[in-house]
């Protein structure tokens, strides 16, 4: 029986919806609040007998305390390793028996749980029972806590010597200074060593509250069934204190900072960037389309073309914005041989300055829009992808018609919009530059 459910689940994990069905499925998003104040976002799709469910809280890495980063991520991890009446193994067995999957959701802003299950009554009810028990009655077992803490400390020791990790950790700390976004989500060796089980239970009680929860439901259930599910999974959550936790605003650094870090690696890992934008920024689409031209479009982007294609200066090169509840970062990243780092940085900075000054060409803008609009169906071609969007729309209070209006918002972007948006937010003379594996890069950075 167990193998039958796993077989069915594997079938339905694949994207099977054609575009017309998807376009119909994403409209409309139904939205309401539970009796406990949680916000619910629901899309019904009867095409396949699957249910995707998630619940998110303002409990991401940004809510860690500066003196003890890592508590938020460990709370999210350990709460799934034992609940009232169920051991870690029993949780795994009960979900596997009905072909369900339960996992954690965690990033800088949010944390929670997600579940995928067959929508048939018996299988759905057993999966929901496990999901709800984990959510309401996590035990944070001491043995699991000690095991995961030891595992994490070992992983951190290994990761701390990797050039990519060093670059990312250093860059975030320089961009965000004392803001929690600058903390390492996993924590560091010193802070993880200080974390106690009491820290996890306190974080859970404070942040996993019903009134601040956002629920996303996608799949083969009715509105009444979705409402019953939402009420069920929020009824036993902590009461919490006050309104949903809110992070402090992020302030942009007003000066250029260069950090050169020696490393024995054969490549230089380079990050250049600054504070970027928050979710819901009015210039999101000009920056989204513009960055596709600048560095987000892979082989179609200027940075990749100038640095990698034309000159062979990097193994990878690109740029991206990371919009968060507060202002996320804008990042240009690349990896290059140490003896090519100077030239790679010079070419990258010239490319950025030219783009901010002049914006995309008419052809670049046309191609970017065509690729982004043409690729949009792939963003929503499965229940899982639509469900992920529901979670984002709900947590960040984006318009319910966000998906419906996505391609239209792209089409309306002009070159002037892009130039204005980039010039207002990115100053090429006041960027953070981190080079791990610095050799010739020291000269490059000093002369820029």
Fold blueprint:
Blueprint: H1 2-12, H2 19-25, E1 30-33, E2 39-44, E3 50-57, H3 71-78, E4 82-83, E5 86-87, H4 88-97, E6 101-106, E7 111-118, H5 121-136, H6 142-159, H7 163-176, H8 189-194, H9 197-207, E8 214-219, H10 223-234, E9 257-261, E10 267-275, H11 284-296, H12 302-309, E11 316-321, E12 329-337, H13 341-358, H14 362-379, H15 383-395, H16 406-411, H17 415-425, E13 432-436, H18 441-447
Parallel strand pairs: 2-8, 9-13
Antiparallel strand pairs: 1-2, 3-7, 3-8, 4-5, 6-7, 10-12, 10-13, 11-12
Helix pairs in contact: 3-9, 5-10, 11-14, 11-17, 12-13, 13-17, 13-18
CATH class of the largest domain: Alpha Beta
Radius of gyration: 23 Å
Helix content: 40-55%
The coarse overall form would be globular
Task: Report the biggest beta sheet as strand number plus sense, adding barrel if it closes.
Answer: 6 strands, mixed
| Termini separation | 66 Å
Quickly count the helices.
18
Count of domains: 2
Query: How much of the sequence is in beta strands?
Result: 15-25%
Summarize the model shown:
Helices cover 46% and strands 17% of the residues. The chain is built from 18 helices and 13 strands.
Structure description:
With 448 residues, this protein is α+β, with helices and mostly antiparallel strands. It folds into 2 domains: 2-234, Metalloenzyme, LuxS/M16 peptidase-like (Cytochrome Bc1 Complex, Chain A, domain 1); 257-447, Cytochrome Bc1 Complex, Chain A, domain 1 (2-Layer Sandwich). The chain contains 18 helices and 13 strands. The chain has helices at residues 2-12, 19-25, 71-78, 88-97, 121-136, 142-159, 163-176, 189-194, 197-207, 223-234, 284-296, 302-309, 341-358, 362-379, 383-395, 406-411, 415-425, 441-447; strands at residues 30-33, 39-44, 50-57, 82-83, 86-87, 101-106, 111-118, 214-219, 257-261, 267-275, 316-321, 329-337, 432-436. Strands 1-2-8-3-7-6 form a 6-stranded mixed beta sheet, with helices on both faces. Strands 9-13-10-12-11 form a 5-stranded mixed beta sheet, with helices on both faces.
